[in-house]
Amino acid sequence: MTNAIVTGSCLCGTVAFEFELPTLFAGHCHCTMCQRAHGAGFVTWIGVREDGFRITSGEPEVVHYRSSAHTTRSFCGRCGSSMFCNGDNHENVIDITVANVHGEIGREVKSHVYYDCRASWLTVNDDLRKLGGDSGTEPL
Fold this sequence. Notes:
43% strand, single chain, mainly beta, nine-stranded mixed beta sheet
């Protein structure tokens, strides 16, 4: 799957994008910002190289929101789909919500990050690594 192109879009289809495989990581994020931004117990993200990522249509509709001192989230201004996240702490990487991807991501999810922030009403019954702490990626 190396160098294959995978596409994706928002709910209404206004914003479309593509990226090159391989992906860099795949994980379920339980941070409270992801919970609130997506209205869900956790969000599944993949990381891709920013230089292999392109918005192919609807770029004027993409809205950027600085959700913390180190993170910018991006969503479709028409339908509200949250799609991208850029963190200042990892250069040349863009995080993409797996739910907005139309094809295979080239890897399995390996971990839960910010697991210690998980929603109290959510039960997780899998054997994936559970990570947390200040960085969200420290072994628990």
